[in-house]
């Protein structure tokens, strides 16, 4: 199979990103009010044309991304004396090295900066929730629908997607502080506020890149950036859609970097506490940081010290809740999203199907299956944590796999949730094995599921299925990793452990 040059991948991806942006100006998640003459509907014909253009651009971006991964892997194999398993002689000379993947990231991300919201209306919820706090509404007791004419965020609230209009915020107070700041600076005007939230998304992207490069082992950093930050699923949903999952992931990985690689467990726990106050799944990082801290000290003293990062994180969360003035209402809204059925949730689909077969009201059966799924996720996390504790699995990889298990068995799943675990797997340097290859295939397929308008049409699932099929075919034809090898790399010595050079605990 032909491998593009680095320059070819860069240009192809930039063209795809530009097509997504141009298509989004006609078919994106345009505001109902407050478009300021810039983001306005242009009729059904333009909407269809824009959607087709955006999907074509997305395809170009995904092809460029896959090819870029092949270039990086061929170059790495060339340096190691291999043939690249699918690369051509000379690919090693073409690959990006050092800071060049960041240049490619700039090329691919830049066209999205001035796009309207893409693939989701969530950013309008963020703006409306920030305005609710400024206007004195209880953001954990009501949804954006409470905003009235003349109040900040009223125009943004009109564009909030259906069931979210009356749903309280499931986000932590740190994110609400950021949303408040954006609304206050922009006066709540839709276009400036959206662009302000995109700046927050760019901060998240920068954090992810910094943390991934810091966590990944030498020689695997370019590939780690490829799987984490150049990933089209991240580009369209974090940069284009401005989902706060990117900020949660960036802070989580930054905290893990400080604690696991630099031995600064207190600082790491504090940063993970901030990540928890964006979205609560970041708390899972405390388990693996605690294991690393406990293993470094050993014995009962180690077990006791392993609890300290969590204590710091809890203190940060409590302090943020008080300082933000929104209180601890976020504790009671963590399950609000579970009541919304999403087709990507295996447990919700299975529970609904069983409920329709055995009961007049399927909801109780569905609820039981969802709870069983969460129990299974807990068991998977416990098994992974045990392996990390025994030194059989890298802690960063363990965190990534645990987040993937949690998402797969959750009662509510969105395509971009796959990024939680993907960026951590990438940060562990596990991008070039069979598992990393299949994870890339999954991310590419999930990117098709949502239309630029934020809806999930049937043809989106069909396109995702086609992409998944082609990706599996590619993975079978050109498998990454040696025959019989584990899908992800084995354990790597953590700085500060016995036999490893590295940081002392502070």
What does this structure look like?
With 506 residues, the protein is an all-alpha fold. The longest helix has 36 residues. The protein has 21 helices and no strands. Helix 5 crosses helix 7. 62% of the residues lie in helices and 0% in strands.
Features:
62% helix, 0% strand, 506 residues, mainly alpha, 21 helices
Helices and strands in order, then pairings?
Layout: H1 6-27, H2 44-79, H3 91-94, H4 100-109, H5 122-134, H6 154-157, H7 173-186, H8 190-215, H9 221-228, H10 232-240, H11 245-261, H12 265-276, H13 284-297, H14 299-306, H15 308-324, H16 346-358, H17 363-389, H18 395-408, H19 418-427, H20 434-447, H21 458-477
Q: Brief description of this entry?
A:
The chain has 506 residues and is mainly alpha-helical. The protein contains 21 helices and no strands. It is globular.
Q: What fraction, in percent, of the residue positions are helical?
A: 55-70%
The mean pLDDT is 89
Structural class from helices and strands? Answer: mainly alpha
Outline the biggest β-sheet. none
Count of discrete alpha- or pi-helical segments spanning 4 or more residues: 21
Fraction of residues in β-strands: under 5%
Count of distinct strands: 0
Element string (H = helix, E = strand) = HHHHHHHHHHHHHHHHHHHHH
Q: Could you tell me the radius of gyration in angstroms?
A: 22 Å
Shape: globular
